[in-house]
Amino acid sequence: MSNTNNTDEPQDSQESQDSSESRTTAANKNNGKRERPGPMEVLRQARGQLAELTGMEAESVSSFEQTEEGWALEVEVLELERVPDTMSLMASYQVELDPDGQLTGYRRVRRYERGRADAHRPGGR
Questions:
Q1: pTM for this entry
Q2: Residue 37 pairs with which residues in a beta bridge?
Q3: Closest among 27, 52, 54, 38 to 100, alpha carbons compared
Q4: What is the C-alpha separation between 19 and 13, in angstroms, rounded?
Q5: Predicted confidence (pLDDT) per residue in 62-102, tens digit
Q6: Which residues have a Cβ under 8 Å from the Cβ of 107 and sit 6 or more positions away?
Q7: Residues contacting 56, CB < 8 A, separation 6+
Q8: What residues have CB less than 8 Å from 35, skipping those under 6 apart?
Q9: DSSP string, 38-92
């Protein structure tokens, strides 16, 4: 019986210590608030979420900015592969994410052949 009591006491004190350390660690992170993802993590999340939704892999991110609502990106994807590669159809998608990096919406804003240069437009668009 004394073995049972001795075994229980260290376990109970160990559990209390572990629980106490978990609370201390959680409280130290942004005063109990969840940490927001940084720009690189947001980019990774956006590319992954867009690929999951559309079935197309992002080739590059041509625009990226933090907004009042979260994040806004323009992502270039390969929509239709052709031979030669310069004839492949590319698309630009405008992607919006919340402050935590979760995709809230996307839309295709243009399609173009990979080998074509943009016509000059005022404002860079």
A1: 0.66
A2: none
A3: 38
A4: 10
A5: 999 999 999 999 999 999 999 999 999 999 999 999 999 99
A6: 93, 94
A7: 50, 77, 78, 79, 91
A8: 29
A9: PHHHHHHHHHHHHHHHHS--EEEEEEEEE-SSSEEEEEEEEEE--SSGGG-EEEE
